Amino acid sequence: MFRLTVLPTLLMLCFLASPAHAGIICSSPALPPACGAYRTPAQVHADYAAGMFVLSDISHFGFLNVVITPMGADERETFDSTVTGTMTITPPGSSMPILMTGQVIVLTHGKTGNTTGTFDTEMLAMNLSGGGALVRESPTLPSLGRTTITDQGGGLYRIDSFFDVFTELSLDGGQTWMPSSGSTLVELVPEPSSLFLIALGGFALPFLRPRRRS
Questions:
Q1: Residue pair 167/180 in contact by the 8 Å Cβ criterion
Q2: Into how many domains does the chain fold?
């Protein structure tokens, strides 16, 4: 009885202790990876307006309506996606979950004609909206990354990938934008709970809009 009780616990602890950058195993080498999510590691977040707005626990997943366009030796991937996270507003220091959706465009260098290999990547555009807020990839700073695809045999592929993304936040419908204080690292990890999050009808709570000055 003791072994039956302890073994599942040990396995769960090993899973939780696994590094986030361990990569994922997919049945397809196509990008963006359909079986994973890009998440921020612990203690990584995006902050705006000198820390007045902080976005943490970021998860970017649900890549749909993918269009692949060869650009010479490079490959451009255009797709719809979903981002979840937690927004903290100071003052008063309150936090709330957010859910945003929108289109993303990524350029993967040297990918055309190659199934496997290591490829430099760049997020060319990201336009997300939800709960009264807009988030976009910086129009002036490059959001760079790297993706490695390895054939594991048996129709399986290991994919390791990350991006350092510069973003901007708008709370007035895009009239003004607040740039993040720096880039935000996101790494590709397994995300079995993605569909569950999407299914939660009340997940996207109203976003805190800026107060009007009297």
A1: yes
A2: 1
Residue 1 lies in a domain: no
Amino acid sitting at position 55: L
Contacts of 109 (CB under 8 A, 6+ apart): 73, 74, 119, 120, 121, 122
pTM score: 0.81
Strand segments, DSSP code E, in the chain are: 24-26, 36-39, 46-48, 53-71, 74-89, 94-108, 117-130, 133-137, 143-153, 156-165, 167-170, 178-179, 184-190
What does the pLDDT look like over 79-137, one tens digit per residue?
999 999 999 999 888 999 999 999 999 999 999 999 999 999 999 999 999 988 999 99
| CA separation for the pair 187, 60 (Å, rounded) | 10
Note whether residue 11 is domain-resident.
no
For residue 67, list its beta bridge partners.
78
- The residue among 106, 147, 139, 123 whose CA lies nearest residue 23 is 147
Residue 214 lies in a domain: no
- 65/34 Cα distance (integer angstroms): 11
d(CA 199, CA 196): 5
The CB density around residue 128, as the number of other CB atoms within 10 Å, is: 22
| Host domain of residue 141 | 21-199
Rounded Cα–Cα distance for residues 190 and 26 (Å) = 10
